[in-house]
Task: structure prediction
Amino acid sequence: MSRLDYSIGRLKTSRACIDHAVAEVGGLPGPILELGLGNGRTFDHLRESLPGRDIFVFELEIAAHPDCIPDDDHLLLGDIKDTLPLAVARFAGQAPLFHADVGSFDHAINAAIAAQIEPFVPQLMRPDGLVVTSVAFPNLQPYPLPAGAIPDTYFMYRPIPA
Ligand code: SAM
Result:
């Protein structure tokens, strides 16, 4: 599979997983958490899919399209090693949907950042919520991907130990 085909498949899978999670848990109350603003593509998709909801975005450094930058009240700017503990104090057990897109093509880096994020997920989320992520969380309970999703390009979990 070419890099282009892989990238297209991964993006389509990310959208399918986000849409699936929105359909499953979008009706539950609580803050939506978006880890990794990047260009703002998935943030924009989430806010279009969940109008009027509070979406809090974690990002190290803003480099998004100007139309896709959350307001200051919804931005947790800084390294997740600092912002995730602060978020737990604020959102403990409340989030129904957590989307994390912080991966790269480097599997070692992905595993390291996943290990940083994973312990905070059950602390931040409602147990009946859903996690959608570009990096695998080996200690959370896997949730079936929607039809057509390409396995191992994106992952879904319940925020409870496997
Ligand atoms: N979902 C985004 C989109 O659709 O445009 C793409 C996100 S991009 C792949 C990953 C983002 O995660 C980058 O903007 C990067 O700055 C951010 N990031 C990576 N490591 C981080 C860290 N330790 N703390 C906070 N943000 C981080």
Residues 36-42, 58-61, 79-80, 101-102 surround S-adenosylmethionine (CB under 6 Å). Helices lie at 3-25, 41-49, 80-91, 107-117, 121-124. The radius of gyration is 14 Å. The chain has a mean pLDDT of 96.
